[in-house]
Write a structure and sequence with these properties.
This protein is an alpha/beta fold. Helix content is 29%, strand content 25%. Pathway: Amino-acid biosynthesis; L-lysine biosynthesis via DAP pathway; L-lysine from DL-2,6-diaminopimelate: step 1/1.
């Protein structure tokens, strides 16, 4: 990730050389700002580590689905990982291709399956036996063969936050490891399914390589059994999940992680298989900041509050997962730094963005909330009838609004009053 994407000039924060304060003035706050070079560098770190190998990167659309962001990746030749037909529509609108898109998710509807089949997605990552039956039925009605991989739950501990750990027995995701071989046999017997791969996703914000290697080992054990049963496995999808530095985490560099996984697969004698990656956070997380303005400083008996114009509806991660996002004043002030709880305007005590943050700020100042490019805007809501923020992309001193700020009237445009 380029450190230079976010830098300081005369103490003031810049994004690719553009003053963050000028962006806030021009586009208003709260404002999501993405650095195109940071997106590109993160993608290239994956792509470079994959070069010379049959390995493909499928950008997890859920982490950031803005069309401009997806388009940056599509131009770089990325594939995509989607979890709804809405995300498929975004991929296609952003210049991505269905044939490079894998469809994940535990609850795909028949209508979504049909749309994805008609569009020609590359693979359905199926998570249960009932879903296999449903997909087989949809494909039969369409007169097609659906390409399928099974998401297997390898039951490894990803050592991450329980809400974003997905590969344990206790999670709702995937086919249980113990049932996987038999489930593959069932899938292989379904006339409108074409079993082509195996898949897993063990969690998110994983800052070590070892859980991946454990998961890969379990998948490859299974692949050997499934092939002995007569079904060929073309690709191994290792999912997404590489963590980023929010605070003091020290995840491996992207290239190091990719090379370690590929080397492990090669060492196990599976180097001939295509490998899929589905990264989200590590591509976009540190490429985005959320700019917010201080409305009020409110000293309290126990705490000082900085009440800002972004709330839990704009950035849900702190409220949902007690997530830490680094914060800095956009412009350096002579004012004395104090400890603040940085909170939003939403009527909930859970509406906080940062606790006990040392900031030198005054009313009207801007705060940059870092590492907000992943699961930031996409998880935002209209709670308290708050229009969602605008999004801007900066590319070498050029800034462009890539999503307009919502207007209040849009928020209830689809509503009506019950007639007398
Ligand atoms: N593939 C699948 C099937 C997934 O479920 C996910 C994320 C990814 C790929 C991408 O994982 P990543 O590389 O971004 O870790 N909202 C939470 C994160 C939820 C992740 C869900 N699955 C957060 O804000 O931390």
């Amino acid at each position: 990730m380029t450190q230079s994407a976010f830098s300081r000039a005369d103490g003031a924060l810049q994004v690719e050389g553009v003053s963050a304060a000028s962006l806030a003035d021009q586009f208003g706050t709260p404002l999501y700002v993405y650095s195109r070079s940071a997106l590109t560098d993160a993608y290239k770190a994956y792509a470079d580590a994959c070069s010379g190998r049959r390995a493909t990167i499928h950008v997890a659309v859920k982490a950031n689905s803005n069309l401009a962001v997806l388009n940056v990746f599509a131009r770089l030749g990325a594939g995509f990982d989607i979890v709804s037909s809405g995300e498929l529509a975004r991929v296609l609108a952003a210049g991505g291709k269905a044939e490079n898109t894998v469809f994940s998710g535990v609850g795909k509807t028949a209508a979504e399956m049909r749309e994805a089949l008609d569009a020609g997605v590359k693979c359905f990552n199926v998570e249960s036996i009932p879903e296999l039956h449903a997909l087989n039925e949809v494909a039969r009605a369409a007169g097609k063969q659906a390409p399928v991989s099974l998401r297997v739950n390898p039951d490894v501990d990803a050592k991450t936050h329980p809400y974003i750990s997905t590969g344990l027995k206790s999670n709702k995701f995937g086919v249980a490891f113990a049932d996987a071989r038999a489930t593959y046999a069932q899938a292989a017997a379904m006339s409108n399914l074409d079993v082509i791969g195996i898949d897993c996703h063990i969690g998110s914000q994983i800052t070590e390589v070892s859980p991946y290697l454990d998961a890969v080992d379990k998948l490859l054990d299974l692949v050997e059994q499934i092939e002995a049963d007569g079904t060929n496995i073309h690709h191994v999808d290792v999912g997404g999940g590489l963590g980023i530095t929010y605070d003091d985490e020290t995840p491996p560099a992207i290239g190091e992680f990719v090379r370690a996984v590929l080397a492990h697969i090669d060492e196990r004698g599976h180097g001939h298989r295509e490998v899929y990656f589905e990264p989200g956070r590590s591509l976009v997380g540190n490429a985005g900041v959320l700019l917010t303005r201080v409305e009020y400083l409110k000293p309290g008996e126990e705490k000082n509050f900085a009440i800002v114009d972004a709330g839990m509806n704009d950035l849900a991660r702190p409220a949902m997962y007690q997530a830490f996002h680094r914060m800095e004043a956009v412009e350096k002030r002579a004012t004395k730094a104090q400890l603040y709880d940085v909170v939003g305007p939403v009527c909930e005590s859970g509406d906080w963005l940062g606790k006990d943050r040392e900031l030198a700020i005054e009313q009207g100042d801007l705060i940059a909330i870092f590492s907000a490019g992943a699961y930031g805007f996409v998880m935002s809501s209209n709670y308290n009838t708050r229009p969602r923020a605008a999004e801007v992309m900066v590319d070498r001193e050029r800034a462009r609004r890539v999503r307009e700020r919502e207007e209040v009237k849009q928020l209830f445009a689809g509503e009506s009053i019950f007639p007398d």
